[in-house]
C-alpha cells in the first residue's frame, strides 16, 4: 500500500510539466558590499582607500633620515601637515623602492619645506603618485634654534 502511494506521487511529479517560477524583484538599484579585498573597487576606495600617519621625531637633527612607513599599494599624497615645538626643521618626504631602498629615491617636493611653530598644510606636490611597493622616509636637511619635537601628518590615498 505504501508502495502504491509512493508510485502515485512520483508519477504525478514526473508527469507535471516544469514551468519557470515567476521572479519578483525584491530591490532595485541594489549595491552589494565589496568583499573582494580589491582596494581599487569603487566602493572600497571610499571606505578603505584613505591612509593617514602621524610621525613624531624627538630631537630632530639637522641632517638625518627617518624611515616612517612601507606601502604595498599604489599611493597618492593628498596632504602633509607639519609643526615643531620651537625653532625650525627643514625637511622633505623621500620615497624609495620597497624592494631596493638603498638605490634611487624621489622627493615629493622639488624644494625642502620648513616646519616652524605654526602648523602648515601642503596639498600640492611635485611628485604625488607612486606605483608599487614603496618606503617613505623623512629626510631633514637643516635646523635653527633648538627644536625638540617635529610632528608630521601624512594623508594619502591607496589606489
Mean pLDDT: 82
Low-pLDDT sequence parts: none
Portion of residues in beta strands equals 35-45%
By helix and strand content, what is the structural category?
A: mainly beta
Share of helix, binned: 10-25%
Number of helices: 2
End-to-end Cα distance: 70 Å
Query: In this structure, how is the largest beta sheet organized?
Result: 5 strands, antiparallel
Give an overview in words:
The chain has a domain at 49-159: icosahedral virus (Jelly Rolls, Sandwich). Strand 4 (88-97) and strand 5 (105-107) form a beta hairpin. The chain has 2 helices and 10 strands; from the N terminus they run H-H-E-E-E-E-E-E-E-E-E-E. The mean pLDDT is 82. Strands 1, 3, 7, 8 and 10 form a 5-stranded antiparallel beta sheet that branches. Strands 2, 4, 5, 6 and 9 form a 5-stranded antiparallel beta sheet that branches. The protein has helices spanning 2-15, 42-48, and strands spanning 50-58, 64-71, 75-84, 88-97, 105-107, 113-115, 120-122, 129-130, 134-144, 149-158. The protein is elongated, with a radius of gyration of 29 Å. It is mainly β and 159 residues long.
Amino acid at each position: 500500500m505504501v508502495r502504491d502511494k509512493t508510485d502515485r506521487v512520483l508519477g504525478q511529479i514526473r508527469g507535471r510539466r516544469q514551468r519557470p517560477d515567476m521572479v519578483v524583484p525584491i530591490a532595485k538599484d541594489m549595491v552589494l558590499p565589496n568583499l573582494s579585498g580589491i582596494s581599487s573597487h569603487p566602493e572600497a576606495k571610499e571606505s578603505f582607500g584613505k591612509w593617514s600617519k602621524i610621525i613624531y621625531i624627538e630631537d630632530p637633527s639637522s641632517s638625518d633620515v627617518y624611515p616612517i612607513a612601507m606601502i604595498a599599494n599604489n599611493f597618492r599624497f593628498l596632504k602633509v601637515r607639519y609643526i615643531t615645538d620651537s625653532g625650525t626643521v627643514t625637511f622633505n618626504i623621500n620615497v624609495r623602492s620597497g624592494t631596493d631602498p638603498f638605490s634611487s629615491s624621489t622627493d615629493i617636493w622639488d624644494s625642502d619645506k620648513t616646519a616652524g611653530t605654526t602648523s602648515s598644510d601642503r596639498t600640492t606636490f611635485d611628485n604625488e603618485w607612486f606605483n608599487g611597493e614603496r618606503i617613505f622616509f623623512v629626510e631633514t636637511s637643516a635646523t635653527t634654534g633648538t627644536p625638540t619635537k617635529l610632528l608630521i601628518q601624512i594623508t594619502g590615498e591607496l589606489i
